[in-house]
């Protein structure tokens, strides 16, 4: 597909899904999204360690959301787990994305986080499309397009003998 084919003075521009520009963009998108989550997690770890108390407190205040009483129960009964898993999860998801290792697996967990944030922050004052939803779309894009294969460690990991002997592992990579 050429750009501005009717203009004989325009240079041809090809954009294929498997082309170099697509690979650069997907790698850039993966690294930026990884930095976003890594920074959020590391900041929480530096400030609170594995005792991120805001998570359970936030959940206990979510009485009027679309999730009903579930987040309130989780905040009251699973606070110890949430305090550790939010900063640790964000950090590990971000690190995996930045280096391009286990990107699909990390993106599944990232999509889970963003889906909870999206529904949990369900004020929807600006409609259903908000920053949390856009983050969810970023993670789903990385799952579908296997962005770890573009300038990431997943491209190397997929070629190992271990993964070749266990081809189902390729679904976690990308």
Automatic annotation (TrEMBL):
Compartments where located: Membrane
Keyword Membrane: yes
Superkingdom in the source lineage: Archaea
Region forming the signal peptide: none
Gene Ontology CC annotation, any one: membrane
Tagged with keyword Membrane: yes
Bilayer topology annotation: Multi-pass membrane protein
Organism this protein belongs to: Haloarcula salina
Pfam families (alphabetical): DoxX (PF07681)
Record's keyword terms, sorted: Membrane, Transmembrane, Transmembrane helix
Sequence intervals crossing the membrane: 21-38, 58-80, 92-118, 133-152
Name of the protein this chain belongs to: DoxX family protein
């Amino acid at each position: 597909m050429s750009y501005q084919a009717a203009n004989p003075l325009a240079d041809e521009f090809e954009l294929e899904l498997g082309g170099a520009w697509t690979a650069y963009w997907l790698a850039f998108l993966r690294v930026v999204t990884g930095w976003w989550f890594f920074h959020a997690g590391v900041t929480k770890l530096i400030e609170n360690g594995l005792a991120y108390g805001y998570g359970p407190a936030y959940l206990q205040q979510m009485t009027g959301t679309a999730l009903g009483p579930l987040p309130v129960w989780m905040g009251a009964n699973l606070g110890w787990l949430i305090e550790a898993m939010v900063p640790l999860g964000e950090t590990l998801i971000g690190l995996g994305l930045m280096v391009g290792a286990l990107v699909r697996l990390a993106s599944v967990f990232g999509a889970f986080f963003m889906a909870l944030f999206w529904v949990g922050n369900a004020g929807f004052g600006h409609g259903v499309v908000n920053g949390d939803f856009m983050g969810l779309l970023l993670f789903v894009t990385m799952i579908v397009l296997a962005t770890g294969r573009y300038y990431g460690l997943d491209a190397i990991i997929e070629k190992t003998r271990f993964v070749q002997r266990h081809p189902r592992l390729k679904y976690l990579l990308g």
